Structure formats: C-alpha cells, structure tokens
TrEMBL record:
Catalyzes the reversible transfer of the terminal phosphate group between ATP and AMP. Plays an important role in cellular energy homeostasis and in adenine nucleotide metabolism. PANTHER family: NUCLEOTIDE KINASE. SUPFAM superfamilies: P-loop containing nucleoside triphosphate hydrolases. This is Adenylate kinase. It comes from Flavobacterium franklandianum.
C-alpha cells in the first residue's frame, strides 16, 4: 500500500500529474477539488456547504472535507494505494488523515510538493479559468486570497512531513513529461 500526498499551491499542476501517477502506480486518485465539484454539481448538502466557502476562495472546513474523503476511501479498500490531491491542507487535516489511515494499519508514505513561483502559478490559473468555468480561477484577487490561505494554513505541513522524513520537494516548472519523470524518480525510490 502506497499513499502519496501530492502537495502544492493552486495551479502547481497537481491534477495534471495525478492523472499520470494514478495510472503508472495503480493508485486511487482522491482530488478534494473534484470531490467538492461533484458534490456541488449534484447539489448535495455537503456540496452546498463547500460552495459557500469555495466561492469566497476560503478553504472548506475540515469536518466536511474529511467526511467526503473517508466515504470514498471506505468504498475502495482494495486499492493499491491512494493519491491525495489537495488534502491535507491544514495540520488538523494531516492529523485526522494519519489517525484515519492508522485505524486501517496504513500510513502516508510520502508527501511530494510541486514547487513554482507565485507569478507563474497565477498565470496558469487565469489561463485555466478561461476554460474551466470555475469562478475562483477567473479572479486574480481570489487567487491571491487562496495563496494567502495556503501560506497561513497549508505551508506549516511542510515541517510536519519533514520531521517524519516524508517530504520531497519537486521543481514544478518544465514540461509535463519532465515533471512526471521527477515525480516518478521519487516514488520509485520510496
């Protein structure tokens, strides 16, 4: 069982890389963004709640996020492993994830961070916003707010995973193939 946390600011390429990694390593891809959008599109109670936060560029509360993820993991217990994309985003979520996984005798194997400078990432998101239909991808102020949220709430996870020797920073600039090769090299050596 291999459980990877794919880490990085919005626009770093987590979703793009997750598509390659899930196939190469036979992992179940758990994208909190996709899970939120599914619940929003299907107008579930959790989706309505998540939308209120996402529309402001805020993080969805831990309890909502964790409930959505636990449901999916529990429906896919025979998976070779999980690729967590966009989760955990806070120290509290990381602790909840560790607790949830330990109850199944599993653990986070590695946290791999796609790193890139904010200006490049903002341009990527604005470009994505032209076709994604996501309102939070079309407003530079909302994007900057998401980065502020990331810096305040998510960046502290770097130290948490470094202390466990599970943190691997990867240069997120380059072609998709180059970045995939960098990620694969880390995973192959775990």
């Amino acid at each position: 069982m291999i459980n990877i946390v794919l880490f990085g600011k919005p626009g770093a390429g987590k979703g793009t890389q997750a598509e390659f990694l899930k196939q190469k390593y036979n992992l179940m891809h758990l994208s909190t963004g996709d899970i939120f959008r599914y619940n929003i599109q299907n107008d579930t109670e959790l989706g309505q709640l998540a939308k209120k936060y996402m529309d402001k560029g805020d993080l969805v509360p831990d309890a909502v996020t964790i409930k959505m993820l636990e449901d999916i993991v529990n429906k896919n217990l025979n998976s070779a492993g999980f690729l967590f994309d966009g989760f955990p985003r806070t120290l509290a979520q990381a602790l909840e994830l560790d607790d949830f996984l330990s109850k199944k005798d599993w653990k986070v194997t590695a946290t791999i961070a796609l790193e890139a400078n904010d200006e490049i990432l903002i341009n990527r998101i604005l470009e994505r916003g032209k076709t994604s239909g996501r309102t939070d991808d079309q407003d530079e102020e909302k994007i900057k707010h998401r980065y502020q949220e990331y810096n305040e709430k998510t960046a502290p996870l770097i130290e948490y995973y470094k202390k466990q020797n599970k943190f691997y920073p990867i240069n997120g600039i380059g072609s998709i193939t180059e970045i995939t090769e960098r990620l694969s090299k880390v995973i192959d050596n775990l």
